[in-house]
Every structure is written in C-alpha cells, then in structure tokens.
Amino acid sequence: MALIVQKYGGSSVGTTEKIRAIANKIKGYRDRGDDVVVVVSAMGGETDRLQGLADEIGSPLPREMDMLLSTGEQVTIALLTMGLSAAGVDACSFTGWQVPIRTDDAHGKARIDSIDAEHLKTELGRGRVVVVAGFQGVNEANDITTLGRGGSDTTAVALAASLKADECQIFTDVDGVYTTDPRVVPGARRLEKITFEEMLEMASLGSKVLQIRAVEFAGKYGVPLRVLSTFDDGPGTLISLEEDVEEPIISGIAFTKDEAQLTVLGVPDRPGIAYSLLGPIGEANIEVDMILQNVSGDPSSDYSATDFTFTVHRRDFDRAKGLLEQAASELGAREVAGNTSIAKVSLVGVGMRSHANVAARMFKTLSEENINIRMISTTEIKISIVIEAKYLELAVRALHETFDLDAEPEKVDSELTPLSEQD
Ligand SMILES: Nc1ncnc2c1ncn2[C@@H]1O[C@H](COP(=O)(O)OP(=O)(O)O)[C@@H](O)[C@H]1O
Ligand SMILES: N[C@@H](CC(=O)OP(=O)(O)O)C(=O)O
C-alpha cells in the first residue's frame, strides 16, 4: 500500500465528464489499497476567464485578485468529491486555507512556508480520499493567496513532501515529458526519465508541462515526481534525482515567445554603464534574462560607443522601455530600440558538460535554415538563442532533427567515443 499525491491539471478537469472519469480512475487506486491525496486545478480556461473579469472591472487589487482566482479550484474540488462519492469512494475536499497551506503574503506569487498536514492525515486514516484545491494558500493575516500560474503542481509537490508520500504524480493531457512540446513537433519523443536539473531548465526556459517552483521544491525535498497522462495508462516520465553514467547529450528543446528584447544603441563605453542601465530596471522589480554587450571597437580612441541589449518578460516590456529611455538619455546614448516579436529556443542536456561542439551543431543547423541568431547565452547544461518569432517552429523542428531527438537517445560514453571524434 502506497501513499500517492496525484495532481490533475485544468486540461484534465475541463468538463464534468472528465471529472467523472478521474473519479473512476482514483477509485482504481483506492481499490488497489493505495492512500490517495488529490490536488486539482480549476477547469481549463477558468483562471483566464476570472482574470478577464477582473480586467473588465479594472483596479486589480492583489488581495482581491487572489480571492477571485482561487474560486476556480473551489469549484473543481467540490465536483470531484461529489464524483468520487457517486463512484462509491469516501472523500472529502479542502481549500488551501482549510488544510492549512501557509504562505508568505506575496499575492499572486506566494511561496509556501509550511503545511499542517494533521487534518489530512486524520481523513486519510478514516479511509477517505482527500481532495485539495491547488494553487492557493493562506497568509498570516488569514487572507487567501495564490501561488502563480501553474501553481497547482507546487501544491501537489509540497503536500507530497509534507506527507512523505511515496510518489507525486502529475496527471496532464500528454503522457509524459517530451523532448519538446509534442504539439509543435509531432515527432517529439516521450522521455522515460529526466534529471531534476534538466527538468528545471526545461521548465524555466518555457516548457509549461511542470511549474518551475514545483520542480525546485521536488528537487530540494527529494520528492519522487512523475508526469503521466490522465486519459491513457502508461509509465509517464520520472523526474529523477540521479544522473545515469550515460546521459544523452541533449534531453530536450524548450522554447518561449514570452520575452521581448531591448537595445540601447550608442552608449558611451565606460565603467558603470551596465549598472546605470539595469539599476532602474532591477529597482522596478523587472527580471532581466539574457544580456549582451558588445566589446567596443577601438580601444585606442578616447571615446567609443557600445550597444547594450537584454531581454525581459513581454508583459514588462513597456515599463522597462520607459525606464531605459530615461536612463539612456541621462547617459547620452543614441537610441533605445525594442522588439517584441522574438522567441527563445534552448537546448537542454546534462550530457553537454562533456560535449564540446553542441553549440556549433546548433548554429550550423540554424544557418542552413537561414535563421538569424540575435542573442546567445550558455550554461554548462543549456544553450539558448534568441531568433525572430516567426522562425520558432522551423528552428525547433530542425534542431530536433539535427540532434536525433526522435530516435533513441544519443549517449555520452567518453570511453568508447572520445570527444575529439564526435562531430
Ligand atoms: N517538453 C514537453 N513535454 C510535454 N508537454 C509539453 C512540453 N513542453 C510543453 N508542453 C505542453 O504542456 C502541456 C501540459 O501543460 P498544461 O497545459 O499546463 O497542463 P495542465 O492543464 O494539466 O496543467 C502539454 O499539453 C504540452 O502542449
Ligand atoms: N488554475 C491555475 C493553477 C494551475 O496550476 O493550473 P493548470 O494545472 O491548469 O496549469 C492556473 O491556471 O494557473
């Protein structure tokens, strides 16, 4: 008998029929003797609908936004619990504050501080399935908070950690984590397993199959995490704490259109420039992602100018541009340019550590497709590039092919294949 925490996302609870089907699926686990805690998201599209209502009214007070957005999950926990009851399964629902899931008071992006799981354990002890609302908690002032979009994944992982569950299972509309979004590349392949490190990169670089914080949390507390299909049986993908001796060079390709690029042209090249430009952006709490500054042309001349480019989330673009224009005019820069039609494509793989020429293969592929690279950034397990948004799908498909991601993984085995001989 195992203790399992299962999370069903918005795409899995979109209709009452689907909710009924999930109730029957959970019954199967109960019949096998497992203890089950279920976390559900709002019905697909509901959180966006609620957000839209708030946009129509205006004045989105953070406390009230969380009061509003948290209602979506309250609907699904009640419906699923009724569905379980109809299927003959004893169950009981809890909102975040009823558990309670204690968070800080950062409305809209609250972090979980602690979970008092005693109440849930009592219900489990009575043989009940416990159904918990995802995405929400309560702060010290007893106000409802939400954990940020996709936050139900984090609720599930945090509950699994707190209850010391045997596994946290994230059920969704795909049957695991793929080499890239299977909706974009039909030949994408399901991964049997992926390391936490890689999954964290994939999530933070745009693969929305798991929320970043959920992966961080699972890694930190050693929660065994698996992504599975709600609608089909199968092993899914295990997010594994251990790296294999042989890891594929590239595990996956992540991408996002959520960023925008800002460039300050003709900035006097002298110490303190980066700080003068990015200081006000940081103070305004705008996160900066990729940064590029070219080396000034002629070191012998008294005055040389440089271009300074960086990316921000698209929603912060207008605000960042305004701040940058002010800073740039104070510095005597020539111009501030912006581009919101960009996309970021990233290759991710721990096997890259021992492989020198991944970047060259990536750039060659893009050049063959005539795709211009605007920015590049690398870490030891990822390479990201910024390109024009209209080439996104072409780039992802071409790279998927170059790195043979639809085939069984290419292994790094330095004993058999010396680095120098790899192409
Ligand atoms: N590498 C990937 N592997 C699997 N799915 C991915 C990947 N990248 C993006 N996705 C997308 O993530 C979706 C699942 O996430 P999401 O829609 O948030 O599900 P849920 O509603 O269950 O929370 C899939 O339908 C798929 O299009
Ligand atoms: N309903 C919330 C929380 C969530 O996690 O949803 P989903 O599991 O559908 O990504 C949202 O839309 O962000």
TrEMBL record:
Pathway this chain belongs to: Amino-acid biosynthesis; L-lysine biosynthesis via DAP pathway; (S)-tetrahydrodipicolinate from L-aspartate: step 1/4; Amino-acid biosynthesis; L-methionine biosynthesis via de novo pathway; L-homoserine from L-aspartate: step 1/3; Amino-acid biosynthesis; L-threonine biosynthesis; L-threonine from L-aspartate: step 1/5
Domain ACT, first and last residues per copy: 262-341, 347-414
Transmembrane segments: none
Keywords, comma-separated and alphabetical: Amino-acid biosynthesis, ATP-binding, Kinase, Lysine biosynthesis, Nucleotide-binding, Transferase
Gene3D superfamilies per UniProt: Acetylglutamate kinase-like, VC0802-like
Molecular-function GO term, any one: aspartate kinase activity
One matching Pfam family: ACT
CDD domains: AAK_AKii-LysC-BS (cd04261), ACT_AK-LysC-DapG-like_2 (cd04923), ACT_AKii-LysC-BS-like_1 (cd04913)
NCBIfam families documented for this protein: asp_kin_monofn, asp_kinases, PRK06635.1-2, PRK06635.1-4
PANTHER family: ASPARTATE KINASE (PTHR21499), ASPARTOKINASE (PTHR21499:SF3)
Entry protein name: Aspartokinase
